[in-house]
C-alpha cells in the first residue's frame, strides 16, 4: 500500500511566515491555508462548542493576516501562532459571556446541568472563568499559564515568545497556578 505524502509536510513554516511578514501576499495565502487546521485545534482546546471554536479560529486567522508583520522570527512561528490563537479563544469566550449576560432572562440559553454536562466540558468552562478572574487580578500571569497548561508549550518556547527570562516565565506560571487553583476546586 502506498502512503500519500502530505504536501505541506516539506513546507518550512518559519520561512513562509517570514516571507509573509515581509509583505509576500502569496506566502500569506499559503500560510493561512496551512495553519487553519492547527488554529482550529488550539481554539477547540479552550472552547466547548465547535461553532465557538470556529468563530475564534476565524478571528485568529484574521489577526494573523493583519498582524503577521509583527512576527520577527525571534521564536518559532508556531509558538507565536499558539499565543495568537489562545488569546483569540479567550476573547471569543469573553464576548460570548458578555452577549449572554445582555440577553433578557426569557431568552437566556439553558444553563448547564451538572448531571448532564461532561466533566471535561464543565472543567473547561471553569478554567475559562478562572482565567477571566486571573486576567482581572493578575493580567501578566495569564499568557504564560495558557501557553504552558493549555497549549502545552515548553518553558523555553514561552520564554522566547514572551521575550522574558526563563526564570520569570516559570515564576509567572507557578504564581498563576497558585492563584487559579482555589477557583478550580470541584464543588459537590
TrEMBL record:
<keyword id="KW-0804">Transcription</keyword>
<dbReference type="Pfam" id="PF04542">
    <property type="entry name" value="Sigma70_r2"/>
</dbReference>
<dbReference type="Pfam" id="PF08281">
    <property type="entry name" value="Sigma70_r4_2"/>
</dbReference>
<dbReference type="GO" id="GO:0016987">
    <property type="term" value="F:sigma factor activity"/>
</dbReference>
<dbReference type="InterPro" id="IPR013324">
    <property type="entry name" value="RNA_pol_sigma_r3/r4-like"/>
</dbReference>
<keyword id="KW-0805">Transcription regulation</keyword>
<dbReference type="InterPro" id="IPR036388">
    <property type="entry name" value="WH-like_DNA-bd_sf"/>
</dbReference>
<dbReference type="InterPro" id="IPR039425">
    <property type="entry name" value="RNA_pol_sigma-70-like"/>
</dbReference>
<feature type="domain" description="RNA polymerase sigma factor 70 region 4 type 2">
    <location>
        <begin position="143"/>
        <end position="179"/>
    </location>
</feature>
<dbReference type="InterPro" id="IPR013325">
    <property type="entry name" value="RNA_pol_sigma_r2"/>
</dbReference>
<dbReference type="GO" id="GO:0003677">
    <property type="term" value="F:DNA binding"/>
</dbReference>
<dbReference type="InterPro" id="IPR014284">
    <property type="entry name" value="RNA_pol_sigma-70_dom"/>
</dbReference>
<keyword id="KW-0731">Sigma factor</keyword>
<dbReference type="GO" id="GO:0006352">
    <property type="term" value="P:DNA-templated transcription initiation"/>
</dbReference>
<dbReference type="InterPro" id="IPR013249">
    <property type="entry name" value="RNA_pol_sigma70_r4_t2"/>
</dbReference>
<feature type="domain" description="RNA polymerase sigma-70 region 2">
    <location>
        <begin position="36"/>
        <end position="99"/>
    </location>
</feature>
<protein>
    <submittedName>
        <fullName>RNA polymerase sigma factor</fullName>
    </submittedName>
</protein>
<comment type="similarity">
    <text>Belongs to the sigma-70 factor family. ECF subfamily.</text>
</comment>
<dbReference type="InterPro" id="IPR007627">
    <property type="entry name" value="RNA_pol_sigma70_r2"/>
</dbReference>
Amino acid at each position: 500500500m502506498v502512503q500519500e505524502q502530505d504536501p505541506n509536510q516539506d513546507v518550512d513554516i518559519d520561512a513562509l511566515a517570514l516571507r509573509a511578514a515581509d509583505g509576500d501576499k502569496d506566502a500569506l495565502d499559503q500560510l493561512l491555508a496551512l495553519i487553519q487546521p492547527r488554529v482550529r485545534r488550539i481554539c477547540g482546546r479552550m472552547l466547548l462548542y465547535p461553532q465557538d471554536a470556529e468563530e475564534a479560529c476565524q478571528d485568529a486567522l484574521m489577526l494573523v493576516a493583519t498582524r503577521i508583520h509583527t512576527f520577527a522570527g525571534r521564536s518559532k512561528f508556531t509558538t507565536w501562532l499558539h499565543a495568537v490563537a489562545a488569546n483569540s479563544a479567550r476573547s471569543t469566550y469573553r464576548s460570548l459571556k458578555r452577549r449572554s449576560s445582555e440577553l433578557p432572562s426569557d431568552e437566556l440559553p439553558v444553563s448547564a446541568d451538572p448531571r448532564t454536562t461532561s466533566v471535561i466540558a464543565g472543567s473547561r468552562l471553569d478554567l475559562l472563568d478562572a482565567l477571566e478572574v486571573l486576567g482581572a487580578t493578575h493580567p501578566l500571569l495569564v499568557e504564560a499559564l495558557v501557553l504552558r497548561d493549555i497549549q502545552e508549550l515548553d518553558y523555553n518556547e514561552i520564554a522566547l515568545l514572551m521575550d522574558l527570562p526563563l526564570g520569570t516565565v516559570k515564576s509567572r506560571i507557578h504564581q498563576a497556578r497558585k492563584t487559579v487553583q482555589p477557583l478550580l476546586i470541584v464543588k459537590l
